[in-house]
Structure formats: structure tokens, C-alpha cells
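Notebook entry, cofactor series.
This is the third protein in the set we're modelling with a bound small molecule. For this one the ligand is flavin-adenine dinucleotide. I'm keeping the input format identical across the series so the outputs can be compared line by line later. Sequence and SMILES below, as received.
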Amino acid sequence: MDLSYGKEYEEFREEVRDFLGANWPPGGDKDRYPTKEETCQFRDDATAKGYLRRSIPKQYGGSEQPPDEIRGAILREEFTRARAPMDPPGIGTMMLVPTLLDRGEAWQKEKFVPPTTRGDINWCQGYSEPGSGSDLASLKTRGELVGDEWVINGQKIWTSGATNADYMFCLVRTEPDAPKHAGISYLLIDMNQEGMDVRPLKQMTGGSDFNEVFLTDVRTPKDWIVGKRGEGWLVSRTTLKHERNSIGAAAQSSAMFQGILHLAKSTSSGGRPNIEDPSIRQRLAEIEGYVRAHEYSGYRQMTRNARNEDPGIIQMMNKLNSTNISHMVSKLALDLLGDDGLLDPTSTSRAGYRPSDNRSWITQYMYSLGIAVAGGTANIQRNVIGERGLGLPRDSAANRSA
Amino acid sequence: MNFDISEEQELLQDTIRQFMANECPTTHLREVFESETGFDATLWKGMAELGLVGLHLDDEYGGAGLEIIDLALVAESLGYGGAPGPFLGHVLAGLAIQLAGSDAQKQTWLPSLATGDAIGTVALGEVGGGWQPEEWTLAAGSTLSGVKLNVPYASIAEVIVVGVEGGGLVLVEKGASGVEIQPIEGVDRARRIDAVTFESTPCEALPEGAAQSGRVRDAALVLLAADAFGSGSRLVDMSVAYAKTREQFGVTIEHFQAVKHQLANMAVELEPSRGLFWYAAHAFDHVQDESQRAAALAKAHISDRVMQIARDSVEAHGGIGFTWECDVQLWFKRSMFNRAFLGTPSVHRERAAQMGGW
Ligand SMILES: Cc1cc2nc3c(=O)[nH]c(=O)nc-3n(C[C@H](O)[C@H](O)[C@H](O)COP(=O)(O)OP(=O)(O)OC[C@H]3O[C@@H](n4cnc5c(N)ncnc54)[C@H](O)[C@@H]3O)c2cc1C
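Returned structure with ligand:
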């Protein structure tokens, strides 16, 4: 075991620090928000150095670096420390780009990868339907080839970010006579067209990040398909794998823990700082046990992946681990908030109460449940761990419907 | 960056698993468990021949000169195998003498501890849960008086390393005057404990005792965490195996999703925590300013998680799980030992909180 990164890597870290010191924040000005142009320029400069868009080929605007988990980790650490932006956040960079690079045609990569990675176009993910959530492969939205175009009819739901999206990557049933999983295709669809009806859904948090999308005779060119007809399920599996990794990142758990520790130090109850309450200290230390365990599991996976070895059952646990930690943190947060836990997090009114700085924790208290459900529920994760990790048999109901 | 164990270390673990499967199948473990002394000299000799009991001692004294991570991996495998006997107290006594002893003391004790010909143990606990060096109360000069509790296998030890007032450590030899050893009816009969009363007993201070006793405690926490992890793996494996054989409603119970999820939850509580004891063990030798806190967190977390896994295992086995006859109870009790010995999880969580500057 050797937890140092080694000389070569420490030199790399120095180089990254120097770059960040010289380039972020733009003009060295810490007191204002950088402009969009400055952020774009920074990302392009960082890409030229080989720090961003690392897995993306040069011809598609990337820096095409050999896979190196450790350089990746150092970059994450240093960029986070400098509060510098990495890839534009969003489902496009996280899920669509890796999928296209894996399965797309050259022209598709050329057309979509560069603007997506630059943050110039936004995507939404059209998978879930009212009748098809965990049992996603039962989806019913139909796609028929009419001349040179797919004509799509149906309904998607829980589509995050659909109001801002330029395009949707969408699972559509194109082969109605084929068995369930083999009848699905992966289509790319322009959101700006007639027949695309996006209706925001109000979440329990009060916000509206996700939407219903009704598709009525929506059209997309014949070749805007990723993979072949009927291969959509397999193509989407590549994407889901990327989603699990990103949601499961141990780094998020650590950041969440730092947040809750800060909250415990900065709030008090009955005149005593919460951090001095023995029961709060116990809970914090218990959560830290989980968080550290998650972090070290991340190192272990990184080590195995770097050697092209299978990390084993541990990598199936990332999402459930994150979910469990985020439940614990959220519950503790509500206790730390005390009376502030009565507040409506979306309200801007100050009537009667001093405005709380900590309302975002109330949103987080609810959002942790969204995390538990989105991208495969906790029960579905348990199925995967039980079946693929522990070698237990598949669900008989799931078998029947397949 | 390499957060993994080496091939040699994996090989060592395989060897121990094989050794335990051959020399101490659960039928045999049960015999030792039910025996008068809880000690099997043949098994001990076998462990010593494999080099397990002096692994961490310097080469010049007949040890293998390895690190706490290696010892922890041994502890994990022994926990998986449910190994009965004085391993824990013995390796800690050797560590204490190596870290805090004079050359003469090392010369006297380490060679025979390294081969396992002499068994050593540590007397840390006191009445009312005083496990930590700063809680020790026995006054020691050239003689020692007072009571130490929960001392592993004191009755067969040639040498006892005793924690005394001010966090110091002293040696008491077998047969020294004024020593009275009373067995305590412990719940884990695979690891026996005694109460030891000293009455003007001649003793010899380890010169660096006060400086090193915290280190010995930290190593103990790491080894308990590692043993707990191994125990947890065994419990998960037993429960999965049982689910694959027990039939109800015309199918093996592994087919019921509730069972599958119960088993998946047990695995998720356990598996990620492996890195906690790895890191704590690694830190002991390589990141000393973090090692105290890492040891405290690892012991608190893993021993606590595994205790719950043991409870879940009983449930997963149904009625048979509640019997003396079912092997689950052996690891259930091992888990109780690992959780309580050297202080419960809450003790070490509070210590972690203090060390974190909270
Ligand atoms: C915040 C948020 C954002 C989302 N964003 C998107 C998005 O952008 N695009 C998109 O396509 N989808 C999105 N989703 C949808 C999400 O993927 C689905 O909600 C999820 O897959 C579960 O499907 P469902 O809601 O139909 O629940 P159901 O599948 O109906 O599940 C209901 C309950 O039954 C349990 N259950 C179902 N099947 C099984 C089984 N086989 N074994 C055991 N238990 C089972 C589930 O665990 C759950 O507890 C989002 C969801 C949320 C909450």
C-alpha cells in the first residue's frame, strides 16, 4: 500500500497548481463572478494543457489524454481547491458524450460532442415514462420510420432540465414485435419543434427541475440513431454506467460531510453550540465512519481500475452508499436546524423569522430522496448487489416479464 | 497511489484461510469454545509455525519485521476463521515490549514470543471501563498492586504487560508473587478473559511505556477492527450460503426478494469498511499523525456495523439461527467481544471527535 501519489504525480500536481494560480479566477480578481466568456476561455486553456475533456479525442475538441485515474483525481482535487470550473455540469457531458464516443457514428460525434463539452448545447434524458420507471424496458413511446424520418409519439416523465434542453436523448420503441429489450432504439431529438410539449412538474421542494414531455408526431432524421435499430437498450446501459459512477462519487460524500460538520459548528441549541452536544458528536463521528469508508473504497476502485483489474462487488455499491450517507446527513441537518426546520425553503419572505442562512439544508433534506430514486432506486441497487455481487437468483417477476 | 494489498499479502491471507479450514473447522472451533480453557495448544503451535504470532517483531529477535497492516490482515483472516486463542493479547504484548522495552527486556522476551513458545498478554482494562492509558490507576514502582480486568488468557501467559498510572507499562512474569488470576465468564468463549489481582507483585517498568502505550492501544484497535471485518465477511458468507440451501414455499429462500435485500444490505454495511482498517493499519506505520484517529474510527465503525450484521445473520437463518448449535452464534459472540473490548463504539467516536478538534 502506498498512498503517496509518487514523484511524477506530485510534479504534475505542481504544474496544475501553477496553471490554476495563473488562470483562475480570471485576472486574479476574487471579488466578482467570472463572465461566461472568461469561463469558456479558461476551459479551453485548461483543455489545451490536457487538464479537461481528457477522454475526448482531439478531433472532437478534447485533449485526448491516456486514461489515468490518478491524474484525474489530482485534477479534481486541485480544481476543487481553487474553486475552478471543470466540465460544464449536466447530463450531456456526464452521459451523452461518453455514450456517443462509445457507440456513435463519426458524424454524430463531430456534430454533438464539441458543443456539448463546451456547454453550448444542453441535453435532457428521455427514458422514464408514466408506466415505465424501474421496469424501464417496458417503455411504450413509439417511433416509426416514415421515409427519412422517425416519427415519435408518446410521453416521457421526470425529464430533468427539459425546459432548457436543446436536444433529448431518448429511448423509443421502434420494433413493437421484438421481445421487450430488443425493441428499443436510442434516438437523438431536437427539442425545438412542434409536437414537443414540455410541462414542468412541481417537486416537493417547491422547485421545478423535472418535467413531463408529451411527444406528438415529433420528428427526427433517420440517422439520428445511436447504435442500430433495436440496440437502444444496450446503448443506454453504457450511459447508465456513467451515471452510476458520477452519482456514486465518494468525493460528494466527503463534501457533504464537510458541510454538515460546518453546520454543527455554526448552529446552536439552548445556547450551546451543537458541536458540543455529545449526541451530535456521536452521530457526526458515526457518519464520518461511513464517509471515510466510502472514500477509501473509492481509492481501492481507482487502484484496481488503473491496473485494469475488476474492483468487484464494491463498485456496485457506490450509489447505495451515497444514498445511505445522504440520508444520514440530511436527517442530522434537520436536527441541527432546530426551529429553522419549520421554514419553507423556497420562501423569500422574512416576516416573523430572521432569514435563515441554512435553508438550503431543508431543500437538501428533501433532495436526498430524489437522489435515492433517480437513476435506479435503492431497491434496484439492492437487486444488482444481490444478483451480480452475491450470486443470488434474479427476481422471478422480472424474469417473467423479460 | 496504490490502495490495495500486495500479492504476498493476499497469499498470506489465503494460507491462513486454508490453515483454518484444515486445522480448525467449525466442529473443532466448537470443541475449543466449549472446553475448560479455550486454548488449543496444537492450533497455537500451527499458527506459530506459520509465523503468525511474531510477524511484526524485528528480525533480530526472530520475527518477520513486518508492519501492522500485515498483522491486521492476519487478524482479519483469523476473524474469518473464528480462530480461538490468545493471538490478540500475545501480539500486543510483543508489540509493547518491542516499542517500549529496554534492549535487555527485548532480548529476554521477544525471541520466545516470536516463536510462540512463550505466550504473552496485555492487561489494559480496569473496573468501570478504564481501558485508555489516561484512565489507568494502578500505582507501580518496583511492585504493583491493584486489579486489572478483561485480560486475555492471563492464566497461560508467561508474561503480562500491565498498563499503570500515568499511562506507563510494566512487565509481570508468570509465577510472580501476589498474583491472583480469576477467570471471567466471557461471552466469547473463543477468546477467554481473566481478572488479575496484583498484591505487592514484583514488576519491571518498560522504559518507554508512557510514551508508547497509546501506540499499543491504537494497534489493538486496528486488530479488533480487522478481526471484526473478517467476522463480518464470514457472517455474510454463511447467510448467503444458507439462503441457497434452505427451502420454503417450494424454493430456496434466496428467491425471496426480501431475503436478497437483507443480504445486500449486510454486504453494503460491511464491504466499504474494509478500507477503514486498511488505512488505519497503514497509517500506524506511515502516517503517524493520523493513526490514532484512524484507529479509533475504524474500530468504532466496523465493530458496530458487524454487530448488526451478526444480528441480521441470526434473523436470516430463522429458528436455527437462534440455537447454540448454529455456527452463527460463534461469530455473533466474537462480534460482541470485538465491539466491547477496549471500549464501545461511542467511546471511540467521542475520542475521534476530540482528536478532530470538534
Ligand atoms: C429528481 C429526479 C430526477 C429524475 N430525472 C430523470 C431524467 O432526467 N430522465 C429520466 O428519464 N428519468 C428521470 N427520473 C426518473 C427516475 O429514473 C425514476 O423515477 C426511477 O427509475 C424509478 O422509477 P419510478 O419513479 O417509476 O418508480 P417505480 O419503478 O414505480 O418504483 C416505485 C417503488 O417500487 C420499487 N420497485 C420497483 N421495481 C422493483 C423491483 N423489481 N424490486 C424491488 N422494488 C422495486 C422501487 O424501488 C420504488 O421504491 C428522475 C427521478 C427523480 C426523482
